Inverse folding.
């Protein structure tokens, strides 16, 4: 297992078992020193069990961002009950590290397999990660993302940003 999902797993397990919030590794590996938005996804038997993340960095480094988002995915995703200790051996972890978003000028710049999207209208914004099962067209990707943001899917008066991810499992 790569160090990023291993850290997410360690954070969730320590919290579920002992209510401990772990600290980043010391010394901090070079790969965890930079800052970036991060999404942590939990799956149980191949089905989503929690996913929380940040569009852009909110903490001092990737390690802290991963720990915070892993705990949020396990305990604060409003779609699911908090992860129970009895589930821990059934959870698979992935960590997506986001590139800086780039505003697009044309939908032709998008590809749902390669790029995630962020849609923004006023104070509403939504994000959808790239390369999700069943999301094969730009139109469907944008429709889902607009609905997540509380924006009418037919509304074309939105700002759209694309980003890539480095996905670690």
């Amino acid at each position: 297992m790569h160090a990023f999902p291993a850290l997410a797993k360690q954070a969730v397990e320590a919290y579920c078992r002992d209510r401990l919030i772990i600290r980043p590794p010391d010394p901090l590996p070079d790969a965890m020193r930079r800052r970036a938005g991060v999404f942590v996804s939990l799956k149980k038997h191949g089905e989503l069990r929690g996913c929380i993340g940040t569009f852009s960095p909110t903490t001092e480094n990737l390690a802290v961002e991963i720990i915070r988002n892993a705990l949020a995915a396990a305990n604060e995703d409003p779609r699911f009950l908090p992860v129970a200790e009895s589930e821990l051996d059934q959870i698979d972890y992935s960590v997506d590290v986001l590139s800086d978003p780039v505003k697009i000028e044309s939908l032709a710049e998008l590809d749902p397999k390669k790029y995630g999207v962020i849609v923004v209208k006023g104070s509403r914004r939504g994000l959808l990660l790239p390369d999700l099962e069943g999301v094969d067209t730009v139109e469907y990707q944008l429709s889902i993302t607009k609905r997540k943001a509380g924006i009418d899917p037919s509304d074309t008066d939105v700002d759209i940003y694309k980003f890539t991810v480095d996905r670690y499992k």
Observations:
- The mean pLDDT is 97.
- The beta strands are 38-44, 47-53, 91-98, 102-103, 116-121, 124-128, 159-163, 165-168.
- Helices lie at 3-18, 62-75, 138-149.
- The chain has two domains: 3-98, 102-168.
